[in-house]
């Protein structure tokens, strides 16, 4: 069981970064006003991305649902562009709790020897598609010799594409991307231009990039949901600093209450939630998403409390199979104690940690 230190140079497991580099800067974002009695901490520092797959954080902060649960304990937020930067911030104490993808969670946990973080909840599933130029690729049997983009070497979508191609019998060198299908690691910010110029024939990408490509004429060839059991796989979960979890469990529990309530509100008020998420994206990133991109992207993401722990292990196994990752020891990466306490209080069933829970 290796600590996976070799992955840093490969850029592996920066899942939620969607191609952004680890030195991208974090920016402060406004939060709702605190009122009422304080919990054990004056402030809780929360990190997330201005991406739809982080919709729970976007909506929960915009609507004040999370702040309401925290009472007088203030929220300080940071908005990140890259998973590695968020993990660095967590390790440095710049944030206490973060919404982040599965791969940087794995990397942060293994590189610290299991001491830096715990995954304490799920947040989102889905929102990833293989979209292609319909003039060049009409079926899944037409992929040989084509050029497909992923956001970053070794990120969650890159691993998913490599695993899918391998299962279909295509041979691709995981590091170079050369083979029966050419895999090009392309920042999501430039992927639409690469598609328009013909530099790529398609891409395995998260939302809203997938819907952006569709708006340019691409077609959805495969929804990643369709390759997973029950059409569910983790794309975003919630992590916490182990130090903060130990010192301020009441604050962590309050954030989880806010997350669970936010996911329920999203489910009951999808259109309002979509608008709130887009308004928060505009506040954080400067630009809102056009309806033609926002609507299909939002529809494809499921906001859930279950961390889908079995799929986290599967994603790690896929990276090992692709040759991008030495087998990590994920034992203890989850601590779902507080989440299950919150779920029980809401008369909801407990969620499982797939044998990877706190010992």
TrEMBL record:
Keywords: Cell inner membrane, Cell membrane, Membrane, Signal, Transport. Gene3D superfamilies: Periplasmic binding protein-like II (3.40.190.10). SUPFAM superfamilies: Periplasmic binding protein-like II. One of its GO terms (molecular function) is ATPase-coupled transmembrane transporter activity. One of its GO terms (cellular component) is plasma membrane. It comes from the Bacteria. It is found in: Cell inner membrane; Periplasm. Belongs to the bacterial solute-binding protein SsuA/TauA family. This is Putative aliphatic sulfonate ABC transporter substrate-binding protein. The lineage of its organism: Bacteria, Bacillati, Actinomycetota, Actinomycetes, Kitasatosporales.
């Amino acid at each position: 069981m290796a600590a996976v230190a070799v992955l840093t140079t490969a850029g592996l497991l920066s899942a939620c970064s969607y191609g952004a580099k680890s030195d991208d800067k974090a920016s402060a974002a406004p939060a709702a006003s605190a009122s009422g009695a304080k919990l054990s901490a004056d402030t809780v520092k929360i990190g997330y991305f201005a991406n739809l797959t982080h919709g729970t954080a976007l909506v929960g902060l915009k609507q004040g649902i999370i702040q309401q649960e925290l009472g007088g304990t203030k929220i300080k937020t940071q908005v990140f562009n890259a998973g590695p930067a968020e993990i660095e911030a967590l390790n440095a104490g710049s944030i206490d709790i973060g919404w982040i993808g599965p791969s940087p969670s794995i990397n942060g946990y293994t590189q610290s020897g299991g001491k830096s973080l715990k995954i304490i909840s799920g947040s989102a599933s889905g929102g990833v598609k293989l979209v292609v130029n319909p003039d060049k690729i009409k079926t899944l049997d037409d992929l040989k010799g084509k050029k497909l983009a992923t956001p970053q070497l070794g990120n969650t979508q890159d691993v998913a594409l490599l695993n899918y191609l391998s299962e279909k019998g295509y041979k691709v060198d995981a590091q170079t991307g050369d083979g029966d299908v050419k895999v090009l690691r392309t920042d999501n910010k430039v992927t639409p231009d690469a598609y328009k110029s013909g530099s790529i024939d398609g891409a395995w990408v998260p939302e809203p990039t997938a819907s952006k490509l569709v708006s340019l004429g691409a077609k959805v060839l495969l929804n990643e949901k369709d390759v997973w059991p029950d059409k569910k796989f983790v794309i975003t979960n919630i992590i916490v600093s182990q130090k903060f979890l130990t010192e301020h469990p009441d604050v962590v529990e309050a954030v989880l209450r806010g997350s669970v309530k936010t996911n329920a509100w999203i489910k009951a008020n999808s259109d309002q939630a979509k608008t709130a998420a887009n308004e928060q994206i505009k506040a954080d990133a400067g630009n809102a998403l056009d309806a033609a991109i926002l609507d299909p992207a939002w529809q494809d993401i499921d906001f859930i409390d279950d961390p889908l722990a079995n799929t986290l292990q599967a994603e790690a196994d896929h990276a090992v199979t692709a040759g991008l990752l030495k087998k990590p020891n994920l034992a203890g990466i989850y601590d779902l104690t507080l989440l299950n306490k919150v779920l029980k209080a809401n008369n909801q069933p407990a969620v499982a940690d797939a044998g990877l829970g706190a010992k």
